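Thread: quick sanity check before group meeting

JM: Hey all, I'm pulling together slides for Thursday and realized we never actually wrote out the predicted structure for the chain we discussed last week. Dropping the sequence here so it's in one place. If anyone has concerns about the input, flag it before I start.
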Amino acid sequence: MRSPFQGELLAWLCLHPGAEYPLIELARRLGVSHATASREADRLAAAGLVLERRFGNVRLTQQNPGRRDAGPGPPPPRGTQVLDRMRPYWAADRFSGGRAAGGESARDS
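JM (edit): ok, ran it. Output follows.
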């Protein structure tokens, strides 16, 4: 990734597949200026990793679900493969109050 924020933005969108977020909300959540978020989202969109659309003056951004099925071309970014493997553990930890299935903390493992 070009910058830490670009990685965080892509990770956030990959962890929430199918969800669209206003770019200003993502900037606020991830602690950067709207200009920084806009610049990095432009780069991710140019690479085909995210999709964007406008709703009035709001710029909505989401992960590009078709990117993995893109046929010939580069493979999906390595980070998305790691996130795919970690998503079940992250969700279990988040929704069970820090306890994985079986009662032990995922952080204790």
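AS: nice. The beta strands are 21-22, 50-55, 58-63. DSSP finds four helices and three strands in the chain.
JM: adding both to the slides.
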